[in-house]
Design goal:
The protein has one domain. By secondary structure, it is mostly helical. The chain contains 3 helices and no strands.
Length: 173
């Protein structure tokens, strides 16, 4: 019941506005083809490129996050390596100090031993020199005593007399 009324009113409007159905359908088909071509050749490739770009951006963000994590890991590893190297360096320095102080103690001990040896040798040499000088003085003293005795007694002393006087003078000393 409403359909004939709507159809009649549509025909009236179409004739008032100059609407021709066969031209309208042709324009409608051309418009539909144009929309299909634009969607198929224009919108779909653009949407595909936009989707690819969005995917690349997401991949880039993921790669950036992974890079940040890897950088943090590398920094942590580097700091650990530096800390280990620092600790190892301290150990090496401490070992070197201990070795140096041990070497210094050994060298000091060796130098002290050499000094004692030199001093002992010097003392022995001094004692030898002193003994030689004493012997020389005793001999000189004995000669002087013999000479004094010869002058006092007025007698020429023999070798046996010299020895006897020397032994007596040495015993008294």
């Amino acid at each position: 019941m409403f359909t004939p009324i709507v159809a009649a009113s549509l025909q009236e409007m179409a004739s008032k506005f100059g609407l021709h159905t066969d031209i309208f359908i042709a324009h409608f088909i051309a418009f539909a083809i144009l929309v299909a071509v634009v969607v198929f050749f224009g919108v779909k490739p653009i949407m595909k490129q936009l989707e690819e770009r969005r995917t690349r951006i997401q991949e880039g963000e993921l790669m950036h996050e992974r890079s940040q994590k890897e950088l943090a890991e590398v920094k942590a590893t580097g700091e650990k390596i530096l800390a280990d190297a620092h600790a190892e360096g301290k150990k090496e320095v401490e070992h070197a100090r201990q070795t140096a102080s041990k070497l210094q103690a050994d060298l000091s001990e060796k130098a002290a031993a050499e000094a004692r040896t030199i001093i002992d040798n010097a003392r022995a040499q001094a004692e030898l020199d002193t003994q030689r000088e004493k012997d020389a003085l005793k001999g000189e003293f004995a000669r002087l005593v013999a000479a004094a005795t010869a002058q006092v007694t007025g007698k020429v002393l023999t070798e046996a007399d010299h020895r006897a006087i020397n032994e007596e003078a040495i015993r008294q000393l």
